[in-house]
Amino acid sequence: MVVSCRPSDAIALATRTRSPLYVADELMETEGLVIEPDDEDVTVEGDPDEVVGEFRAFLDRIRPEDFTS
Fold first, then answer.
1. From CA 27, how far away is CA 31, in angstroms rounded?
2. Torsion region of 4: left, alpha or beta (phi above 0 gives left; psi -120 to 50 gives alpha)
3. Triad 26, 33, 25: Cα angle to 5°
4. pLDDT tens-digit map of 10-68
5. 43 neighbors 51 (Cβ within 8 angstroms)
6. pTM score of the predicted model
């Protein structure tokens, strides 16, 4: 199936459906950007569903007061 959409929507859809994402070579040559990882990049290990579950639990517990100094 071919879907025409904004780049952000295409990335979100491809990620959620684990589908390939095709981009025109001309577009990548003119607009593409290679981001090199640095020492500050964090790699999350473990089952992605478990990591997401832990993050959702964190979001359920956090309160606005936790952000005040």
1. 6
2. beta
3. 15
4. 888 888 888 888 888 998 899 888 888 776 666 777 888 888 888 899 999 998 888 87
5. no
6. 0.40
pLDDT band at 69 (very low <50, low <70, confident <90, very high): low
What is the DSSP-derived secondary structure letter of residue 65? Answer: G
39's tokens: 């020492």
Q: To which H or E segment does residue 50 belong?
A: helix 48-61
DSSP 8-class letter at 39:
T
d(CA 53, CA 47): 10
Q: How far apart are CA 13 and CA 38, in angstroms?
A: 27
Token pair belonging to 14: 């491809």
